[in-house]
Amino acid sequence: MMRWSERYDLHGHSTHSDGELSVAQLAQKIASEGVEVWALTDHDVISGWKEASEEAKQRDIRFIPGVEITCIPGLAAQKTILEKEGRDRSTTSWHLLAYFPNHDSNVNSQSISAFRKWLEPFAEGRIGRMKRMVEKVNALGMDIDFEAVMARSSGAVGRPHLAKEMIEKGYANSMQQVFDEWLGDGCPANVEKTKPTIVEAVNVIHAAGGICSLAHPIYYGIESNNLLSFIKSVGVDAVEAFHRSHPDKYRMELLNCAQKIGLKVTCGSDYHGPSYQARPGHMAVPSSYLPEQII
Ligand SMILES: [Zn+2]
Ligand SMILES: [Zn+2]
What we know:
With 295 residues, the protein is of the alpha/beta class. It has 2 domains: 4-109 and 194-289, TIM Barrel, CATH 3.20.20; 122-183, Orthogonal Bundle (DNA polymerase, domain 1). It is 39% helix and 14% strand. It has helices at 23-32, 49-58, 79-84, 110-139, 146-150, 159-168, 175-183, 198-207, 224-233, 248-261; strands spanning 4-5, 8-9, 37-40, 62-71, 94-99, 211-214, 238-243, 264-268, 285-286. The chain has a 7-stranded mixed beta sheet with strand order 2-3-4-5-6-7-8. Strands 1-9 form a two-stranded antiparallel sheet. It binds zinc ion (2 copies).
Protein backbone atom coordinates (compact mmCIF):
# COMPACT_ATOMS: atom_id res chain seq x y z
CA MET A 1 0.00 0.00 0.00
CA MET A 2 1.30 3.40 -1.00
CA ARG A 3 0.80 6.00 1.72
CA TRP A 4 0.64 9.48 0.19
CA SER A 5 1.63 12.55 2.17
CA GLU A 6 1.63 16.31 1.55
CA ARG A 7 3.78 17.07 4.62
CA TYR A 8 7.03 17.50 2.70
CA ASP A 9 8.40 20.34 0.58
CA LEU A 10 12.08 19.72 -0.13
CA HIS A 11 12.84 22.39 -2.75
CA GLY A 12 12.49 26.19 -2.56
CA HIS A 13 14.32 29.51 -2.85
CA SER A 14 14.68 32.68 -0.74
CA THR A 15 16.35 36.05 -1.38
CA HIS A 16 19.66 34.31 -0.61
CA SER A 17 19.46 33.27 -4.28
CA ASP A 18 16.74 34.09 -6.82
CA GLY A 19 13.62 33.78 -4.64
CA GLU A 20 11.42 36.80 -3.89
CA LEU A 21 10.73 36.15 -0.20
CA SER A 22 13.12 36.54 2.72
CA VAL A 23 13.75 33.40 4.76
CA ALA A 24 11.32 34.58 7.45
CA GLN A 25 8.56 35.37 4.93
CA LEU A 26 9.13 32.03 3.21
CA ALA A 27 8.99 30.11 6.52
CA GLN A 28 5.70 31.86 7.30
CA LYS A 29 4.29 30.89 3.90
CA ILE A 30 5.53 27.29 4.25
CA ALA A 31 3.84 26.98 7.65
CA SER A 32 0.56 28.48 6.44
CA GLU A 33 0.40 25.90 3.61
CA GLY A 34 0.68 22.99 6.05
CA VAL A 35 4.24 21.88 5.28
CA GLU A 36 5.77 19.99 8.23
CA VAL A 37 9.14 19.01 6.79
CA TRP A 38 10.88 21.79 4.91
CA ALA A 39 14.20 22.12 3.05
CA LEU A 40 15.56 25.48 1.90
CA THR A 41 17.58 24.90 -1.27
CA ASP A 42 19.00 28.20 -2.52
CA HIS A 43 21.28 28.08 -5.58
CA ASP A 44 24.91 27.38 -4.62
CA VAL A 45 24.67 29.07 -1.18
CA ILE A 46 23.96 27.85 2.37
CA SER A 47 23.81 31.31 3.97
CA GLY A 48 20.08 30.99 4.74
CA TRP A 49 20.35 27.87 6.93
CA LYS A 50 20.73 29.40 10.36
CA GLU A 51 17.80 31.79 10.06
CA ALA A 52 15.66 29.14 8.37
CA SER A 53 16.29 26.66 11.14
CA GLU A 54 15.26 29.24 13.78
CA GLU A 55 12.16 30.28 11.83
CA ALA A 56 11.18 26.63 11.39
CA LYS A 57 11.64 25.85 15.08
CA GLN A 58 9.26 28.67 16.07
CA ARG A 59 6.61 27.12 13.85
CA ASP A 60 7.09 23.45 14.81
CA ILE A 61 8.42 22.63 11.36
CA ARG A 62 11.26 20.16 10.88
CA PHE A 63 13.99 21.99 8.91
CA ILE A 64 16.39 20.14 6.62
CA PRO A 65 19.44 22.16 5.49
CA GLY A 66 19.74 21.99 1.70
CA VAL A 67 21.31 23.57 -1.37
CA GLU A 68 20.71 23.30 -5.14
CA ILE A 69 24.07 22.89 -6.87
CA THR A 70 24.50 23.85 -10.54
CA CYS A 71 26.48 21.04 -12.21
CA ILE A 72 27.78 20.14 -15.66
CA PRO A 73 25.26 17.80 -17.39
CA GLY A 74 26.19 14.14 -16.85
CA LEU A 75 24.77 12.99 -20.19
CA ALA A 76 24.01 14.70 -23.50
CA ALA A 77 20.32 15.38 -24.21
CA GLN A 78 18.52 13.23 -26.79
CA LYS A 79 16.65 15.19 -29.46
CA THR A 80 13.73 12.73 -29.60
CA ILE A 81 13.11 13.01 -25.85
CA LEU A 82 13.25 16.81 -25.93
CA GLU A 83 10.70 16.79 -28.75
CA LYS A 84 8.44 14.41 -26.84
CA GLU A 85 8.47 16.85 -23.90
CA GLY A 86 7.82 19.77 -26.25
CA ARG A 87 11.19 21.46 -25.66
CA ASP A 88 13.43 22.85 -28.39
CA ARG A 89 16.66 22.65 -26.40
CA SER A 90 17.98 21.20 -23.15
CA THR A 91 19.41 23.16 -20.23
CA THR A 92 23.16 23.82 -20.09
CA SER A 93 23.35 22.43 -16.55
CA TRP A 94 21.92 19.76 -14.26
CA HIS A 95 20.77 20.77 -10.80
CA LEU A 96 21.66 18.53 -7.88
CA LEU A 97 19.81 18.98 -4.57
CA ALA A 98 21.99 18.28 -1.54
CA TYR A 99 20.41 17.59 1.87
CA PHE A 100 22.00 17.35 5.31
CA PRO A 101 19.17 15.89 7.44
CA ASN A 102 21.42 15.17 10.42
CA HIS A 103 23.19 18.52 10.37
CA ASP A 104 22.52 21.17 13.03
CA SER A 105 22.29 24.10 10.53
CA ASN A 106 25.47 25.76 11.82
CA VAL A 107 27.28 26.62 8.57
CA ASN A 108 30.58 26.91 10.48
CA SER A 109 30.51 23.51 12.15
CA GLN A 110 33.32 21.03 11.65
CA SER A 111 31.21 18.51 9.74
CA ILE A 112 30.12 20.98 7.06
CA SER A 113 33.24 23.14 6.71
CA ALA A 114 34.90 21.18 3.92
CA PHE A 115 31.67 21.18 1.94
CA ARG A 116 31.14 24.91 2.54
CA LYS A 117 34.68 25.71 1.36
CA TRP A 118 34.19 23.57 -1.74
CA LEU A 119 30.91 25.32 -2.55
CA GLU A 120 32.07 28.93 -2.08
CA PRO A 121 33.88 29.47 -5.42
CA PHE A 122 30.76 28.37 -7.32
CA ALA A 123 28.65 31.04 -5.61
CA GLU A 124 31.42 33.63 -5.86
CA GLY A 125 31.77 32.57 -9.47
CA ARG A 126 28.55 34.46 -10.13
CA ILE A 127 30.25 37.76 -9.23
CA GLY A 128 33.45 37.04 -11.17
CA ARG A 129 31.34 35.97 -14.12
CA MET A 130 29.32 39.20 -13.96
CA LYS A 131 32.53 41.27 -13.89
CA ARG A 132 33.72 39.55 -17.05
CA MET A 133 30.36 39.99 -18.79
CA VAL A 134 30.33 43.71 -17.95
CA GLU A 135 33.87 43.98 -19.40
CA LYS A 136 32.69 42.32 -22.60
CA VAL A 137 29.69 44.64 -22.85
CA ASN A 138 31.99 47.64 -22.26
CA ALA A 139 34.32 46.40 -25.01
CA LEU A 140 31.30 46.31 -27.34
CA GLY A 141 30.91 50.05 -26.75
CA MET A 142 28.22 50.09 -24.05
CA ASP A 143 28.79 52.24 -20.98
CA ILE A 144 27.63 49.89 -18.20
CA ASP A 145 28.82 50.18 -14.60
CA PHE A 146 29.51 46.91 -12.69
CA GLU A 147 28.39 48.37 -9.35
CA ALA A 148 25.09 49.51 -10.87
CA VAL A 149 24.42 45.93 -12.03
CA MET A 150 25.35 44.50 -8.61
CA ALA A 151 23.00 47.01 -6.92
CA ARG A 152 20.10 45.44 -8.84
CA SER A 153 20.51 42.05 -7.10
CA SER A 154 19.93 41.31 -3.44
CA GLY A 155 21.41 37.82 -3.53
CA ALA A 156 22.83 35.83 -6.42
CA VAL A 157 23.55 38.18 -9.34
CA GLY A 158 22.74 36.93 -12.85
CA ARG A 159 22.24 37.89 -16.47
CA PRO A 160 18.73 39.42 -15.99
CA HIS A 161 20.25 42.09 -13.72
CA LEU A 162 22.75 43.10 -16.41
CA ALA A 163 20.05 42.98 -19.09
CA LYS A 164 17.82 45.37 -17.12
CA GLU A 165 20.71 47.84 -16.75
CA MET A 166 21.41 47.64 -20.51
CA ILE A 167 17.74 48.37 -21.26
CA GLU A 168 17.62 51.29 -18.84
CA LYS A 169 20.75 52.78 -20.40
CA GLY A 170 19.01 52.61 -23.80
CA TYR A 171 21.20 49.94 -25.43
CA ALA A 172 18.27 47.57 -26.02
CA ASN A 173 14.48 47.60 -26.02
CA SER A 174 13.72 44.25 -24.40
CA MET A 175 15.14 41.33 -22.40
CA GLN A 176 14.56 39.18 -25.48
CA GLN A 177 16.78 41.46 -27.58
CA VAL A 178 19.55 41.53 -24.96
CA PHE A 179 19.61 37.73 -24.73
CA ASP A 180 19.32 37.18 -28.50
CA GLU A 181 22.12 39.62 -29.38
CA TRP A 182 24.54 39.71 -26.43
CA LEU A 183 23.93 37.62 -23.30
CA GLY A 184 22.31 34.36 -24.47
CA ASP A 185 24.35 31.12 -24.50
CA GLY A 186 26.97 31.39 -27.24
CA CYS A 187 26.45 35.17 -27.70
CA PRO A 188 29.36 37.68 -27.74
CA ALA A 189 29.00 39.05 -24.19
CA ASN A 190 28.09 35.76 -22.45
CA VAL A 191 30.51 34.06 -20.06
CA GLU A 192 29.91 30.40 -19.15
CA LYS A 193 29.47 29.66 -15.44
CA THR A 194 32.02 27.48 -13.65
CA LYS A 195 30.38 24.26 -12.50
CA PRO A 196 31.38 20.99 -10.84
CA THR A 197 30.65 17.60 -12.39
CA ILE A 198 27.86 15.52 -10.85
CA VAL A 199 30.42 12.95 -9.66
CA GLU A 200 32.51 15.60 -7.89
CA ALA A 201 29.43 17.08 -6.20
CA VAL A 202 28.12 13.67 -5.05
CA ASN A 203 31.45 12.79 -3.44
CA VAL A 204 31.72 16.07 -1.51
CA ILE A 205 28.08 15.82 -0.33
CA HIS A 206 28.53 12.24 0.90
CA ALA A 207 31.82 13.09 2.63
CA ALA A 208 29.95 15.77 4.60
CA GLY A 209 27.27 13.27 5.66
CA GLY A 210 24.65 14.48 3.20
CA ILE A 211 22.46 12.85 0.57
CA CYS A 212 21.47 14.12 -2.87
CA SER A 213 18.63 14.08 -5.38
CA LEU A 214 18.67 15.03 -9.05
CA ALA A 215 16.32 18.04 -9.46
CA HIS A 216 13.57 18.34 -12.11
CA PRO A 217 14.82 15.74 -14.63
CA ILE A 218 12.14 16.76 -17.14
CA TYR A 219 14.43 19.56 -18.34
CA TYR A 220 17.37 17.34 -19.30
CA GLY A 221 16.00 15.44 -22.30
CA ILE A 222 17.11 11.93 -21.27
CA GLU A 223 14.99 8.77 -21.37
CA SER A 224 14.03 7.86 -17.78
CA ASN A 225 15.70 4.41 -17.59
CA ASN A 226 18.96 5.76 -19.03
CA LEU A 227 18.92 8.78 -16.76
CA LEU A 228 18.19 6.90 -13.56
CA SER A 229 20.71 4.13 -14.34
CA PHE A 230 23.33 6.80 -14.89
CA ILE A 231 22.68 8.74 -11.68
CA LYS A 232 22.52 5.52 -9.66
CA SER A 233 25.89 4.49 -11.12
CA VAL A 234 27.56 7.72 -9.96
CA GLY A 235 26.11 7.49 -6.43
CA VAL A 236 23.16 9.93 -6.52
CA ASP A 237 20.71 8.79 -3.82
CA ALA A 238 17.37 9.95 -5.20
CA VAL A 239 15.50 11.61 -8.05
CA GLU A 240 13.07 14.52 -7.68
CA ALA A 241 10.22 12.59 -9.31
CA PHE A 242 7.61 14.85 -7.74
CA HIS A 243 8.56 18.31 -9.02
CA ARG A 244 5.92 20.98 -9.62
CA SER A 245 6.63 21.05 -13.38
CA HIS A 246 6.23 17.28 -13.90
CA PRO A 247 2.95 15.93 -15.35
CA ASP A 248 1.40 13.10 -13.29
CA LYS A 249 2.30 10.52 -15.90
CA TYR A 250 5.98 11.49 -15.77
CA ARG A 251 5.97 11.44 -11.94
CA MET A 252 4.72 7.84 -11.98
CA GLU A 253 7.16 6.83 -14.71
CA LEU A 254 10.06 8.11 -12.60
CA LEU A 255 8.67 6.54 -9.41
CA ASN A 256 8.37 3.10 -11.06
CA CYS A 257 11.77 3.37 -12.64
CA ALA A 258 13.39 4.53 -9.38
CA GLN A 259 11.85 1.60 -7.52
CA LYS A 260 13.13 -0.88 -10.09
CA ILE A 261 16.66 0.52 -9.98
CA GLY A 262 16.83 1.04 -6.21
CA LEU A 263 16.77 4.84 -6.04
CA LYS A 264 14.76 6.93 -3.59
CA VAL A 265 12.47 9.79 -4.71
CA THR A 266 11.98 13.34 -3.40
CA CYS A 267 9.35 16.04 -3.88
CA GLY A 268 9.60 19.80 -4.24
CA SER A 269 7.52 22.81 -5.21
CA ASP A 270 10.65 24.78 -6.31
CA TYR A 271 8.82 27.84 -4.96
CA HIS A 272 10.44 31.16 -6.00
CA GLY A 273 7.77 33.56 -4.69
CA PRO A 274 4.27 34.87 -5.43
CA SER A 275 4.97 36.25 -8.93
CA TYR A 276 5.98 32.75 -10.04
CA GLN A 277 3.57 30.48 -8.14
CA ALA A 278 0.66 31.01 -5.79
CA ARG A 279 1.93 28.75 -3.04
CA PRO A 280 4.59 26.26 -1.92
CA GLY A 281 3.81 22.81 -0.51
CA HIS A 282 0.93 20.54 -1.56
CA MET A 283 3.37 18.07 -3.12
CA ALA A 284 1.83 14.62 -2.79
CA VAL A 285 4.51 11.94 -2.43
CA PRO A 286 4.40 8.26 -1.35
CA SER A 287 6.38 8.90 1.83
CA SER A 288 7.93 5.44 2.22
CA TYR A 289 9.92 6.03 -1.00
CA LEU A 290 11.67 9.13 0.38
CA PRO A 291 15.28 8.75 1.61
CA GLU A 292 15.05 7.21 5.11
CA GLN A 293 16.97 10.13 6.66
CA ILE A 294 14.13 12.45 5.61
CA ILE A 295 11.00 10.37 6.42
ZN1 LIG B 1 16.72 24.01 -10.54
ZN1 LIG C 1 15.17 25.30 -7.67
